């Protein structure tokens, strides 16, 4: 199978007894340890870091969820979709409508159900999934660029609905998103006041933990999905639909289902986007957002969950960081030079070109190469196994029976 | 035929804008996409397209 499926797999598959068993065992301990350490650092970060970074972090967490979802669709199963912005919009709008309070703001009369935000979040995810499900017959039958164009239609329809369905979406000006709360604990500046180790936990800190939990759950789900039987089936489907159907993979069914999963991811990302910005507006859910998400997964490495995470952090945090440090960076800043957002966009463009030229597996490929050197693999690349060792997880039968040897 | 269909649909949506106001202003800009999705929903290979053959 192609390399991208391996990027997140090493250490997890040990089939049989191989000559390097002790080294492998050490590695398999090392990996969860590293993950744990990263998690501890992320958990402790709000105690030390200022608010700007926490807000950026929450935006990045939202982007991570969305990028993982899009990567499942585009990277893993090879369906080009530009409709991600639409599903984000569905999630965001349903969250805002379901948990928002009804009321008029100036000219527009806004509706709202005023339900608890957690219900709003769930409804947002489910409605985005429903939208994906309705679209999925189309997605299952079209391929490549045709699907791209068809999904493009959704974005334009979505923008139109956002602009014209004022009662729900707030129309052209958008509307404010209600604060998130869970069982009476609001993720806002007060109510209740909270201090941890003398550090005031305000909105940014609380949202950080919320985002961390959601992104981590999304990450785990995607990784486990990819290692499971459906995940293998999806990868075969990307490599060759004919081969997949010959192996007994229900091509249409899997294509439709992965579209559903991906749009649910997008719905959650939309809810987090609304929370992070604090309001929703039609122009933020345009084609540009879809393109940005595509940029994330291409930068990160198609088909790799870790890559999607890295790409999402890079693409979503960079404009914010540029904006903040505009004075320090040459050619960017007020008055002369570029605006921060534009500069970031130029940088994405350059980064994408460079990535495609030099490291088609993306940031995940670079990370892989570094860890590969660290492990002193023969040949340095994970795909190249010496002939005598059993090649792990490179079996060309992805929709295999469980006896394949994946120990997860 | 495709162009004709899209063109007529768009012009009609623009012409009957007052009756279609409940769908929002500027609806005619979106009509082509709706037509496309509707067509693709029921005829995946387009109105007159033939089913694609795949060679292995």
Automatic annotation (TrEMBL), chain A:
Cross-referenced Pfam families: BPD_transp_2
Domain of life the protein comes from: Bacteria
Principal cellular location given in the protein's record: membrane
Keyword Membrane on entry: yes
Membrane topology, as annotated: Multi-pass membrane protein
Transmembrane segments: 29-48, 54-73, 80-98, 118-138, 145-165, 207-226, 258-278, 284-302, 346-367
Region feature Disordered, mapped onto this chain: 1-20, 376-408
Compartments it resides in: Cell membrane
InterPro entries: ABC_transp_permease, LivM-like
Keyword list, A-Z: Cell membrane, Membrane, Transmembrane, Transmembrane helix
Keyword Coiled coil set for record: no
CDD domains for this protein: TM_PBP1_LivM_like
Record protein name field: Branched-chain amino acid ABC transporter permease
Organism: Blastococcus brunescens
Taxonomic path: Bacteria, Bacillati, Actinomycetota, Actinomycetes, Geodermatophilales
């Amino acid at each position: 199978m192609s390399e991208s499926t391996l990027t997140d797999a090493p250490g997890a598959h040990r089939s049989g007894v191989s000559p390097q068993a002790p080294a492998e065992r050490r590695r398999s301990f090392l990996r969860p340890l590293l993950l744990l350490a990263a998690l501890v650092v992320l958990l402790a970060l709000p105690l030390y870091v200022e608010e700007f970074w926490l807000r950026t972090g929450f935006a990045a967490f939202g982007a991570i969820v969305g990028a993982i979802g899009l990567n499942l669709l585009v990277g893993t199963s090879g369906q080009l979709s530009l409709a991600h912005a639409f599903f984000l919009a569905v999630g965001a709008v349903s969250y805002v409508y379901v948990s928002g309070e009804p009321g008029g703001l100036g000219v527009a009369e806004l509706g709202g159900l005023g339900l608890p935000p957690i219900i709003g979040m769930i409804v947002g995810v489910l409605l985005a999934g429903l939208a994906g499900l309705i679209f999925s017959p189309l997605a299952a039958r079209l391929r490549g660029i045709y699907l791209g164009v068809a999904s493009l239609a959704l974005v334009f329809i979505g923008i139109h609905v956002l602009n014209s369905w004022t009662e729900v979406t707030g129309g052209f000006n958008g509307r404010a998103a209600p604060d998130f709360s869970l069982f009476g604990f609001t993720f806002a500046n007060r109510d209740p006041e909270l201090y941890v180790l003398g550090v005031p936990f305000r909105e940014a800190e609380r949202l950080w933990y919320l985002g961390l939990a959601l992104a981590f759950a999304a990450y785990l789900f995607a990784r486990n999905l990819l290692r499971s039987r459906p995940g293998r089936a999806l990868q075969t489907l990307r490599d060759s639909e004919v081969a997949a159907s010959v192996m007994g993979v229900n091509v249409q069914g899997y294509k439709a289902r992965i579209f559903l999963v991906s749009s649910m991811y997008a719905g959650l990302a939309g809810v987090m986007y609304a929370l992070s910005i604090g309001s929703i507006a039609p122009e933020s859910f345009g084609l540009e957002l879809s393109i940005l998400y595509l940029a994330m997964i291409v930068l990160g490495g198609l088909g790799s969950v870790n890559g999607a995470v890295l790409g999402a952090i890079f693409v979503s945090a960079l404009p914010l960081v540029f904006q903040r440090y505009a004075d320090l960076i040459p050619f960017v800043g007020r008055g002369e030079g570029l605006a921060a957002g534009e500069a970031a966009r130029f940088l994405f463009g350059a980064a994408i070109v460079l990535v495609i030229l030099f490291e088609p597996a993306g940031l995940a490929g670079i990370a892989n190469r570094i860890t590969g050197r660290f492990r002193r693999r023969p040949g340095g690349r994970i795909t190249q196994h010496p002939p005598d060792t059993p090649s792990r997880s490179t079996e060309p039968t992805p929709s295999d029976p469980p006896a394949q040897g994946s120990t997860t | 035929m495709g162009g004709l269909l899209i063109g007529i649909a768009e012009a009609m949506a623009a012409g009957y804008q007052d009756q279609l106001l409940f769908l929002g202003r500027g609806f005619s800009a979106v009509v082509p996409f709706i037509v496309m999705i509707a067509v693709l929903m029921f005829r995946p290979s387009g109105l007159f397209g033939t089913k694609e053959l795949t060679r292995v």
